[in-house]
Amino acid sequence: MAENSDDQAGGAAVSGARWTQEPAGLLRVEEGFRLDAVDTRATPGYAGDKKTAGHDLASCGRELGDLQERLYAAHHEADSGPSVLLVLQAMDTAGKGGIIRHVVGAVDPQGIELAAFKAPTEEELAHDFLWRVRRQVPGPGMIGVFDRSHYEDVLIGKVRELADAEEIEQRYQAINDFEAELAEAGVRMVKVMLHISPDEQRDRLLKRLDRPDKHWKYNPGDVDERRLWPDYMAAYQAVFDRTSTDAAPWFVVPADRKWYSRLAVQRLLQTALEVIDPQWPAADFDVEVEKQRLLAT
Amino acid sequence: MAENSDDQAGGAAVSGARWTQEPAGLLRVEEGFRLDAVDTRATPGYAGDKKTAGHDLASCGRELGDLQERLYAAHHEADSGPSVLLVLQAMDTAGKGGIIRHVVGAVDPQGIELAAFKAPTEEELAHDFLWRVRRQVPGPGMIGVFDRSHYEDVLIGKVRELADAEEIEQRYQAINDFEAELAEAGVRMVKVMLHISPDEQRDRLLKRLDRPDKHWKYNPGDVDERRLWPDYMAAYQAVFDRTSTDAAPWFVVPADRKWYSRLAVQRLLQTALEVIDPQWPAADFDVEVEKQRLLAT
């Protein structure tokens, strides 16, 4: 790619953008990870700035689109096969919607399965907490996106004491078992927490209040949740301690700068697809015979 | 919009692109419509060419995205309310996929409900032909897209005699009743047939055969369907004669030039949204009170 030739002169350069190190390595939750040590304004691994980010998002979006099309072509009609599942968790205003619009939205909608998990319905509450999630696992060849997820059941579920402590404990294990089962079935999970500071959230909520065309995104309940910030951070820390596994690792993406978090999530998706390395399927027909049949019509 | 100021000098100009007349009027199937009189290479109503089309698709995509966001904001959490349903029907290679990727793909995926109807499963065959379609009707505030639809049951269903003539007859009426019910519930339907010539299809199929990265899109069965072209055109004519209603009109979009068909379908969607005219919802909270609550945290 011509536009990256300058980066590629540097030894550690990564194709596709101004990445000097892979977010998949830098942002991954490893043993001993401390959420409170993360700088939410940082832009780890990216050598560009806000100005270059728009360009890189577009050019990497084309690369991601190409990989997605290969994944779809190779696997979408099979009974089993690889898929990708992006799980998005975050405090309000952290930018889940922007990721879906600008990162996910840049690839062919025919290859995307998007699921938004809101407060559970009565029917959903009548089942195990993973029931509604299992129904939305992406099929072979697809990229699934969870806007919130089963992690709500150990985040708001814990903070608001919607379940007792013993039940919460059991859920971590149930999640790990579930995700190990998904990984075994070929689902490559990319679990992302978009991490903003409380100050950044206040600024973003104030902006929503200032703009009548953003009022619909504002919910007075957001302020109530905001008051529980330390409790939520503790619940996230417990999630990372208990559920960041080799089969399904967590990535904490600094998100005070939207341009960075979008680029980073895009890159994480691209890495997941590159590991799958989908190839155009070979023709299951004789190309020359088909040409003759076609020309005879 | 600055880029259209030249067009707007002309009296009949339409905002948003180089449209001199609305596709919603020009392409609509009215009494006496003859499919065989349509020029598949024509570009009715559009004063630009292939070069301007890319620019117009992008700028009108932003307008469409704005309207979609208003629709979503105003209605998506309500129990009832307006939605848009784009129904796409076409012979193979006519460009349904490109419409989904380049027109639908330009708006926020969170506001889109995409449903692809393939050959019915056993479960689907055990029900009335509209059963699987009813389950995919877009909810309030959403734009639904049907990649094929219940019309397959009177197209391939008729051509391949998958149902007897009497049953096909009954289906036209069932479809009209169903669509009148949808319209009553606020679903604004935009039923589109992308219309290509048999020569154009042959060229496109040959191109797929020439490119290994397109082989996966080629199906030898496409040639068998192609041999039945006149039968399909007769079945489409019958569909137009029987099911183009005020509640749910058909539009036949010349599609030999992909750049035209994409612009035209985009414009049809935009017109549907403009008729709904969604407005940003008013705040259901006191903005000043919320600012104070927020600043106190």
> How does the overall form of chain A come out from the CA principal axes?
globular
Summing up helix and strand content along with how strands pair, one would put the structural category of chain A as alpha/beta
The rounded Rg of chain A comes to 21 Å
- Mean pLDDT of chain A comes to 94
Tell me the total number of β-strands of chain A. 5
How is the topology of this model organized?
Two copies of one chain form a homodimer.
Chain A: H1 5-8, H2 23-26, H3 50-75, E1 83-90, H4 96-102, E2 112-116, H5 122-125, H6 131-134, E3 143-147, H7 156-159, H8 165-184, E4 187-195, H9 198-210, H10 221-227, H11 229-243, E5 250-254, H12 258-276, H13 287-295
Parallel strand pairs in A: 1-3, 1-4, 2-3, 4-5
Helix pairs in contact in A: 3-12
Can you put this structure into words, describing what you see?
The structure is a homodimer of 297-residue chains. Chain A is built from 13 helices and five strands. By secondary structure, chain A is of the alpha/beta class. Chain A has a domain at 28-42 and 75-256: P-loop containing nucleotide triphosphate hydrolases (Rossmann fold), CATH 3.40.50.300. A five-stranded parallel β-sheet of chain A has the order 2-3-1-4-5, with helices on both faces. Chain A is globular and about 70 Å long.
